[in-house]
């Protein structure tokens, strides 16, 4: 096999986290090549509902994730101007049980730094006339809507402009090196079938729910639980704000406006294979049944599409649904397990991709002896169109 010249860091995975990491490392002057087996953002990144989380959804039971979300929510609005519909969100109470949850949610949001505002029934209906008229009130939070693919492309575009080498349709089929030391990846070009090796001082496994299989190539165990969830796109914009049910996270309890569509989600189960993305009919029906409790028009709206996406959740195996696991993220330096040159980042959400990249870049820079600090909190990203212009050029 032909051996390509080796950049210093090889990133495996072309989702949002991989793109944000390429951007961060490039700003630090580190040479980067990123490989993705399909098109960029074709995995979990391009399949979620497009919610920029305020963190309120996790404030009660997963406060670590809540703080991560509100922190990154504010940073992303600053560095990606124009990428979000800054429409806010409502947590809607439909009865006494929901009001009991409010009594836990409001102080939890306050503790996590998430601003809230209580709205009466009439105030909520003025903002969202199609809400269930039986609601008793709603809590306003700084949720927002984003394009699940265009926002991450801004990270790729800026990484490209700073010298990163981005290679979609390049599948990793093995890791190179010796026992206990990873020195690169063996890849196949899916367009031509050509196989070659890419060397590097460090390989970063940013493959999301596929991270376990990449880790296995290096002889390490990555505790990823792929957790698919079904989403349903309905024709028509049934709300202008993100609408959530005011209760513990459950199936079909969120409606996200996306241009002329409304996305209802999600269910949750766990699988061994993240490519096993079924769309069970009963899950679709559950989205409609539960979503219509928030917005009755969900019941009669035309279904535009249904799909599922696998969350790359971290934690001990054995969970029956992804709701039992935290939405936080973790970076693993596998040198602690006796395998040098391999680092994994997993967990998290689309909202926290930049923070995940910062944590990982700090680990990588330290291992390489690079003292450049992170600059992604303030660096305004190029528009997503710059990515396509750069590729064409």
Note the topology.
Elements: E1 2-4, E2 9-12, H1 16-27, E3 32-35, E4 51-52, H2 63-79, E5 84-85, E6 89-93, H3 96-112, E7 117-119, H4 121-127, E8 137-141, E9 144-146, H5 150-161, E10 165-167, E11 170-178, E12 181-189, E13 195-199, E14 202-205, H6 211-217, E15 224-235, E16 242-245, E17 254-258, E18 261-265, H7 281-294, E19 303-314, E20 329-333, E21 342-347, H8 353-368, H9 385-392
Parallel strand pairs: 1-13, 2-3, 2-14, 3-10, 6-16, 14-21
Antiparallel strand pairs: 4-9, 5-9, 6-8, 7-8, 11-12, 12-13, 15-18, 15-19, 16-17, 17-18, 20-21
Helix pairs in contact: 1-5, 1-8, 5-9
List keywords for this structure.
393 residues, alpha/beta, FAD/NAD(P)-binding domain, D-Amino Acid Oxidase, Chain A, domain 2, 2 domains, six-stranded mixed beta sheet, 9 helices, disordered N terminus
CATH architecture grouping of the largest domain = 3-Layer(bba) Sandwich
CATH class of the largest domain: Alpha Beta
Radius of gyration, in Å, reads: 21 Å
Tell me about the biggest sheet? 8 strands, mixed
How does the helix and strand content classify structurally? alpha/beta
Give the CATH H-level superfamily of the largest domain.
Answer: FAD/NAD(P)-binding domain
Strand order of the largest sheet: 7-8-6-16-17-18-15-19
List the quaternary state of the chains: single chain
Relative strand content: 25-35%
How many separate structural domains?
2
CATH fold node name of the largest domain = FAD/NAD(P)-binding domain
Q: How many strands? A: 21
Number of helices: 9
- Low-confidence residue ranges: 1-6
Q: Give the SSE string.
A: EEHEEHEEHEHEEHEEEEEHEEEEHEEEHH
């Amino acid at each position: 096999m032909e051996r390509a010249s080796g950049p210093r860091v090889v990133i495996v995975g072309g989702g949002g986290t991989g793109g944000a990491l390429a951007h961060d490392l490039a700003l630090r002057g580190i040479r980067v090549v990123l490989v993705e087996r399909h098109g960029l953002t074709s995995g979990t990144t391009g399949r979620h509902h497009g919610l920029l989380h305020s963190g309120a959804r996790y404030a009660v039971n997963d406060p670590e994730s809540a703080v991560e979300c509100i922190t990154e929510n504010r940073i992303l609005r600053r560095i990606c101007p124009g990428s979000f519909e800054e429409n806010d969100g409502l947590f809607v109470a439909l009865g006494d049980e929901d009001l009991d949850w409010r009594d836990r949610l409001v102080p939890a949001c306050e503790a996590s730094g998430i601003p809230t505002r209580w709205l009466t029934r009439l105030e909520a209906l003025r903002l969202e006339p199609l809400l269930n008229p039986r609601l008793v009130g709603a809590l306003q939070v700084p949720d927002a809507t984003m394009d699940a693919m265009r926002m991450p492309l801004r990270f790729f575009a800026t990484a490209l402009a700073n010298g990163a080498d981005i290679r979609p349709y390049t599948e990793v089929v093995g890791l190179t090196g010796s026992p206990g030391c990873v020195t690169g990846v063996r890849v196949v070009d899916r367009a031509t079938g050509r196989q070659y090796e890419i060397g590097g001082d460090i390989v970063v496994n940013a493959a999301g729910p596929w991270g376990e299989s990449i880790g296995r190539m290096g002889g390490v165990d990555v505790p990823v639980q792929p957790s698919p969830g079904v989403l349903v796109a309905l024709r028509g914009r049934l709300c202008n704000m993100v609408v959530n049910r005011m209760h513990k996270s459950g199936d079909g309890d969120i409606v996200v406006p996306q241009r002329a569509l409304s996305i209802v989600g999600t269910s949750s189960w766990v699988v061994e294979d993240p490519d096993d993305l079924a769309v069970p009919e009963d899950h679709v029906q559950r989205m409609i049944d539960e979503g219509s409790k928030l917005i009755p028009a969900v019941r009669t709206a035309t279904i535009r599409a249904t799909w599922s996406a696998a969350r790359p959740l971290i934690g001990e195996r054995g969970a029956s649904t992804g709701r039992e696991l935290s939405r936080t993220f973790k970076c693993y330096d596998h040198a602690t397990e006796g395998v040098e040159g391999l680092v994994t980042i997993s967990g998290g959400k689309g909202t926290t991709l930049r923070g995940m990249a910062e944590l990982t870049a700090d680990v990588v820079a330290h291992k390489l002896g690079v003292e450049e600090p992170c600059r992604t909190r303030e660096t305004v990203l190029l528009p997503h169109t710059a990515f396509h212009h750069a590729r064409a050029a």
